[in-house]
Amino acid sequence: MAEQKGLLIVYTGPGKGKTTCALGTGFRAVGQGLRVLMVQFIKGSWHYGELDAAEMLGTEHFEIRAMGRGFVKIGGAETDPEDMRLCEEAWEFGRAQMQSGRYNLMIFDEINYVISYRMLEAEKVVAALVARPEGMHVICTGRNAHPALVEAADLVTEMREVKHPYTKGILAQRGIDY
Ligand code: ATP
Ligand code: MG
């Protein structure tokens, strides 16, 4: 018998497929009548297909909020204070939505990346994720997942790069990469 248990899920590692795996899970969840919210910490430089696909499903089912802007400089003293502010704002928004309990699945896209660049404090994030409403699923994506998050998670999958077209000089493909 299926039992309702909110899972903390992490998709990490250097191989391709972290964000698409989260989106695929969101797609599946919508089919089961769950409400999904994806908060994107890093906005890419092009228009992603999933933004329009989510609108086709209906934002009351699958909502994607792209916060932040495409990062130019990141890490240490180089990080632009404006990006730090946007990142904090995205987290505060996501945290509030999570606590509201309005969604059955929340996706924090690229949150591992911003934590690894110390734009968000890992302990603070993990504490909030652990304290989420019961029964709510959460997915965190991005390379270099923090050990504290891995420790707290129920499911962790690491994408390993076996091959990537980029190494042959093939650039990002519409519908596959964005
Ligand atoms: P995707 O969004 O395709 O699932 P991802 O979330 O696993 O990828 P990110 O680290 O978020 O990967 O990278 C974002 C962009 O970089 C995507 O356009 C993706 O196609 C590309 N990318 C991912 N992995 C690799 C890689 N190993 N080499 C080169 N480019 C990559
Ligand atoms: Mg990604």
Question: What distinguishing features does this structure have?
Answer:
178 residues; alpha/beta; Rossmann fold; 6-stranded parallel sheet; 36% helix; binds adenosine-5'-triphosphate; binds magnesium ion
What does this entry look like structurally?
With 178 residues, the chain is α/β, with parallel strands linked by helices. The protein has a single domain, classed as 3-Layer(aba) Sandwich (Rossmann fold). 36% of the residues lie in helices and 16% in strands. The protein contains 6 helices and 6 strands; from the N terminus they run βαβαβαβααβαβ. The longest helix is centred in the middle third of the chain and has 20 residues, at 81-100. The chain is globular and about 45 Å long. Bound molecules: adenosine-5'-triphosphate (ATP) and magnesium ion.
Total individual domains: 1
From the helix content, strand content and strand pairing, which structural class follows?
Answer: alpha/beta
Annotation field: number of helices = 6
Bound molecules: adenosine-5'-triphosphate, magnesium ion
Q: What characterizes the major β-sheet?
A: 6 strands, parallel
Oligomer: single chain
